[in-house]
Structure formats: C-alpha cells, structure tokens
Amino acid sequence: MLDASNRSGGTAELAVPAPPLPRAGLAARCARALFSPWARLSLLLALLAGAGTVVLLFDPQRLLTHGWPPQAGGIAAALVFGVGYGLCTVAFVPRPLLNLAAGALFGSQLGLATALAGTVLGAGVAFGLGRLLGQDALRPLLRGRLLRAADGQLSRHGFRSMLAARLFPGVPFWAANYCAAVSRMGWLPFLLATALGSVPNTAAYAVAGARASAPTSPAFLIAMACIAVPALVGTVVAWRQRHRLRGR
After folding, report:
1. How far is the C-alpha of 178 from the C-alpha of 200, rounded, in Å?
2. What is d(CA 173, CA 127) in angstroms, rounded to the nearest whole number?
3. Angle, nearest 10°, between helix axes 145-156 and 173-182?
4. Chain segment 70-85, per-residue pLDDT in tens
5. Under 8 Å CB-to-CB from 176, ≥6 apart: which residues?
6. pLDDT digit string (tens) for 192-223?
7. Cα angle 78-79-83, degrees, rounded to a multiple of 5
8. Which has more confidence, 69 or 149?
9. Which residues contact 204 (CB under 8 A, 6 or more apart)?
10. pTM here?
11. What is the pLDDT of residue 220?
12. What is the 3-state secondary structure (H, E, C) of the chain?
C-alpha cells in the first residue's frame, strides 16, 4: 500500500529526530560555582585578610607618618597620599593615625582636604567590594529582629543613618562601610553622608597633626578637646545603651 505522499506524487522525507540538548559541561558548572554568592564572599574575606596581613608585615602607616613620598611635593604628594589613605582604610589602618599624618604633612587645610578625599575613596572601595562580593550571600542571613531593624533603617533612611554613624565616634569606619554595603542603601547617600559626617572628626585630627610641634598652642588644645569630648560622650552613650540592653 502506497502512503499518502507516494499517492500524491510527492517525495517521502524521513523525519530526523532533533539531537538532545547537551548538559552543562564541567566549565559551566565551575563558572557557576566560582560566581556563586558564597564563593564571592570567600573572595572578599580572602582579600580583606590579605590586606590586613600586608599592613601587619609592612606597616604602611609608618611610611606615611615619616613623610612619604619624599620625591613629591605639594598637590602631587597630596594626591598620592589620598590614594594611599583610601587603600589603607580598606586594609583596616586606623583613620585617626592617617588624619594626624595628613595634618602633619600638608597642614590643616590641605591635610583636611586630602584626608577627606582619602576617606571617601576608601569608603567607596569598601562599599563596592561589599556590595559586589558580599551582599548576595549575607542578605539571606538577616533573619533576627535586630538585624532586620538595622537593615531596614539603613535601607530606608540611608543618608541620615550613615551621617549619624560617621558623626558618632564609637562606630568603626570599616564596620559602617560593610553594613551599608549589605543593605539596600544607594551609592550617592552613602558617599555624601560619609563626606559630610567625616568633616568634624577629620578636621580635629588634621589640625592636631599640623600643630603637633606646638602642643600648648590654642589651636592644638581646641583640636584635642574636639577629639576627646565626642569620644567621651560616645563612651558614655555606649555604656548606657549596654546597661539598657542587659536590663531587657
């Protein structure tokens, strides 16, 4: 019996089954593993550990306080110092030491501008690293009531929350950076609040560094008072909050 195609005079065509879609190969699986949230978080932790190790071994703040770089002067040296300042803050070098060095090397005004530029640069680098490498892995862990409340405050009121964190002397610089990176805070509120909120404390340290050779001068004494009084107030507030939490 002839089939329909032969009866109609057409040419019979054999149906060729489509080849099965290939499964994801080893390279694709490795790529997914390398770019997974936990792999990126591990990379962030490795970078931070490496940066901290470099600081402990080479002590870059000692180079800054001794007038590095000696071959440059003026604006060029300030630019180099600002970049070094930012990278040092990412590597957990204390900002007060860097602020004092900025004032000692460049004077009150240029030292303040250089330190603020380094502050914003370091905060931006830390925020970007935390946002790119840590946010996806850490956000699912925000399950506790306090963690959710802190995340909601940073996400909804980013500018004023970060401004308060920069003004309050008890909040570590690096901790504020990475907490903001894990939240939904935007780049502009974070950087703007960092720049504005860092002015008072940075200015006090820069003036103290610039007038360190005259410790009895009014400018040095006022600067030290501007450093000591907020630190004392911050300690008292933190102590009272600690007792309130214990009472609950």
Report:
1. 22
2. 11
3. 90
4. 555 678 889 989 998 9
5. 162, 165, 166
6. 999 999 999 999 999 999 998 888 888 888 88
7. 115
8. 149
9. 223, 224, 226, 227
10. 0.77
11. 85
12. CCCHHHHCCCCCCCCCCCCCCCCCCHHHHHHHHHCCHHHHHHHHHHHHHHHHHHHHHHCHHHHHHCCCCCCCCHHHHHHHHHHHHHHHHHCCCCHHHHHHHHHHHHHHHHHHHHHHHHHHHHHHHHHHHHHHHHHHHHHHHCCCHHHHHHHHHHHHCHHHHHHHHHHCCCCCHHHHHHHHHHCCCCHHHHHHHHHHHCHHHHHHHHHHHHCCCCCCCHHHHHHHHHHHHHHHHHHHHHHHHHHHHHHC
Q: What whole-number distance in Å separates Cα of residue 39 and Cα of residue 176? A: 23
Task: Please tell me whether the peptide bond between 140 and the residue prior to it is cis, using omega within 30 degrees of 0.
Answer: no
Average pLDDT, the chain: 80
Mean pLDDT is lowest, of 51-60, 113-122, 233-242, for 233-242
